[in-house]
Design a protein that fits this description.
The chain is built from 13 helices and seven strands. Strands 3-2-1-4-5-7-6 form a seven-stranded mixed beta sheet, with helices on both faces. α1 crosses α13, α9 packs antiparallel against α13 and α11 packs antiparallel against α13. It is globular, with a radius of gyration of 20 Å.
Length: about 375
């Protein structure tokens, strides 16, 4: 899903950098030390990253084909991807389709928690960054209503239901995937949250949701799919309350500055297999905020706290279990490619060219 056609020569030069940092050199950025949890899959991840280097001609053809697809086709690809894989994910990992939070520094004691507990912990961290608890209390005290939250890229509604429960919020969740929306609605009914949640098939770049209708927009590992970030932020701004509205977001990013050849190739493959546009850095996201009507945010690197190499290592190991191999094969090449992309994601975090970015963007006051 790329906004511009990629020429064959694009595989020989960095294509994802919108701003090149002249102070960066590959020798100045050492790879992160491998963790013990990543050790079992490190050789496979490294070999997967080396594979594209031996196949640049084939990759160039495939990426050019992807680049020529229209916008509607790109979004159809994303919807189809999640229609196909959401059931397998829910069966193996539950209702939350995102990383977990294991803590940084003194918080490393959280390392013993389960994946599901860590996923809740990540939502708690993002809610804390967004100041959602305090805003919910303020709105109830001054306006006598519940806080209204839009969950952009809601998956099967795990975060939406958690937000509704935790903050007594009215939550709208949107996704491109009809399968996800149907499942989210079903689970909300089972958990008796239908009155406080609403799930809709909508495109975040062109939704029919109301102007100023939400106090918070919540974006949990979704923005990496957005091809036009500037339009995305302007659309988010349109839907936010202009007195206190804010965006709370975590997203996959690339390291700021120039990337090495093998790093660019790895991102190209991940982009093709996961239906992603060109990668940008946290710093680039932050630079777009003022032009969309937000205060300048402080980008945060949460990569270490989410222990991504363990997460993607677990995804890879799980995908190689016999029952899941059968399931992935049944849904075609997209399932096999998704499993292979997990190895490259682990490699990207291992080499420190993929980042887990977090930030809060507040509506700029007139």
């Amino acid at each position: 899903m790329r906004a511009q056609r990629l020429a064959t020569s694009s595989l020989l030069t960095p294509i994802h950098n919108q701003h090149k940092d002249p102070t960066y050199s590959s020798s100045s950025s050492a790879a992160a030390a491998p963790s013990s949890s990543f050790a079992p899959v490190a050789p496979f991840a490294t070999s997967m990253a080396a594979l594209p280097l031996a196949s640049t001609r084939r990759a160039g053809h495939s990426l050019r084909t992807q680049a020529t697809k229209g916008g509607d086709q790109l979004f159809d690809n994303i919807a189809d991807f999640y229609d196909s894989l959401s059931g397998i994910w829910e069966r193996e990992y539950g209702e939350h389709m995102h990383h977990g939070w294991y803590g940084e520094g003194e918080e490393k004691s959280k390392s013993q928690i389960t994946v599901q507990q860590a996923q809740v912990a990540l939502m708690e961290e993002l809610a804390k960054l967004g100041g959602i608890k305090e805003l919910a209390e303020q709105i109830m005290a001054t306006e006598g209503r519940r806080i209204r939250i839009l969950d952009v890229g809601c998956g099967i509604g795990g975060a939406s239901r958690w937000l509704a429960n935790t903050f007594d919020a009215d939550v709208t969740g949107i996704s491109l995937s009809p399968t996800q929306i149907a499942r989210a609605t079903e689970l909300a009914k089972e958990k008796q949250l239908s009155e406080r949640t609403d799930f809709q098939v909508q495109n975040a770049l062109s939704s029919t949701l109301p102007d100023g209708g939400f106090d918070v927009v919540w974006s949990l590992e979704m923005a990496e799919h957005i091809p036009d970030r500037d339009t995305f932020l302007k659309e988010i701004h349109r839907m936010l309350n202009k007195k206190h509205g804010r965006l709370a977001m975590v997203t996959w990013c690339k390291r700021d500055g120039m990337l090495d050849f093998d790093e660019e190739i790895a991102l190209n493959y991940i982009s093709e297999w996961y239906n992603l546009p060109r990668w940008i850095s946290m710093e680039r996201w932050a630079s777009l905020a003022p032009g969309a009507g937000f205060e300048s945010p402080t980008p945060l690197d949460w990569s270490q706290g989410v222990r991504p190499m363990q997460f993607w290592g677990d995804i890879l190991v799980t995908s190689l279990q016999p029952k899941n191999i059968v399931g992935l094969l049944q849904i075609g090449d997209k399932g096999v490619k998704a499993g292979a992309a997990a190895a490259l994601m682990a490699y990207g975090f291992y080499k420190d060219f993929i980042k887990f970015g977090a930030m809060r963007m507040d509506v700029k006051q007139a």
